Amino acid sequence: MKNAELVFAPLGGCREIGMNLNAYGYGPPENRRWIVVDVGVTFGDDTTPGVDLIMPDPVYLESYADDIEAIILTHAHEDHIGAIGWLWPKLRAPIYATPFTAYLVAEKLRERGLGDEAPLHIMQLREKRTFGPFEVEMVTLTHSIPEPNGLAIRTPLGLILHTGDWKIDPDPIIGEDFDQAKIEELGREGILAMVCDSTNVFEEGEAGSEALAREALKRAVAEQTGRVAITAFASNVARVQSACEAARANDRSICLLGRSMIRIAGAAQSVGLLKEFTFLDPSVAADLPPQHVLYLCTGSQGEPNAALARVARGDHPSVRLGADDTVIFSSRVIPGNERAIGEIQNMLAERNIKLVTDKQFDIHVSGHPCRDELRRMYLWAKPRIAIPVHGERRHIMEHARYARSLQVPEAITPDNGDVVRLAPGPVMVIDQVPAGRLHVDGEVLTSDKAGGMWERKKMAYNGHLSVSLVIAKGKIEDGPTIVARGFSEPDGRPADESLEPLDDAADAAISGMKRSDLGDDDKIEKVLTKAVRRASEVQFGKRPLVDVTIHRL
Question: Which string of DSSP letters, residue by residue, matches 3-62?
Fold first, then answer.
């Protein structure tokens, strides 16, 4: 095809760990065909009050929706599939995933009312399919969830290996082994570029096998005499399997707590996993002797509405833990969650519940490759170009340096919104396109640049003042009246008294206006806003959000 180019455009996942959204384009600039790989989310924090989910803004791809051949999902973690129900209406391309991933994606589509509208197709492990100018082959890797796949993407201008999330696990507990032979075969075929996970690039050695965590969990549970609760990422099905085996090895029945845990277990059983285990209802588990119960629950990151938080607060409807009982944290601490996890652990400690973490036992292993695994992958794949993704900026820059040290001829460090030309010619960024974020605020999907979040933060840190004024026939009939929200009250002083300087400032501002200006609402609003905000800064040290309401009779 004349003037055809092969391009890679990450719109999420290249300045954060999570929120993955990648696109590959082939053809001349004016007539490219596309495939999209993964459509994931990240989660809100203290900087986004009221927002639980955050996802990439696909506005660039939305303008090419008719040119998208397929959306292909590498595996079922939320940072790779969590946005599909929200963003599919903007992309409207057929979705392809392996059976386990498709089970969970179907639920997400149904939740958004898209179950009968969005076409969802099953791709089996190792299957090849053609999507326009792209031939895509599933490559079996190992991770912490069933059916993790790399993608071998063949085009007329070269072969790309998109790894998705992976590690090299010699004993993966669930699923098939890492397909080293296929990676080496692709390397002999000739890989133009490898787009690769950067999460653990600063970690020496190897991530470790899930088998190590399984044996450590067995030992940790064996030492406990009362009820045991294990908390882990629900999506880490390998860890769920390990926890279940630890329960069986110690003659304990298993009870699942938390909607995510129950949903993931159902998805696993739909593809033949976890079928050897029986899960008890919480009301049944409550009647068993303490030494024969193991709860497997959500909430390892201190989520306030998760099952573990309810247990810690003592308001779970069916589960009570106390002295002689144990909670085992079998997960890593995601940076930023330290305080929330600490609060949960302190609440558990107040109830005299024993805490076990990876400080005492090796009960967690990462699902992402450390440096030795990256070295082996580059040795087998032999790509001409290294493209680090799935990492913060420091991860991506270090990954590129490491790839060059492994004799990879070229490495490029993309940012979200970069359009990288892979072929023909030297690899380079040829364009930068919009790559913002969308917030799920309740049931509303809104840009992170929208004013609502700024106002919410402003009120959270500085409070809110409402100023009302009644004007009749060009004269002030009542007010200005000020109502304050979110302000601290000085010790021993009534709230109304602390607002007196603001009332005085508003009165003075209105008195100083010309009578002719009292007919101009905009001028009144500007004068009052400026006056009460300045007075608030003097009185409280705050510059609040100010709303002025003018009533005319």
Answer: T-EEEEEEEESSSBSS--EEEEEEE-GGG-EEEEEEE--EE--TTSTTEEEEEE--HHHH
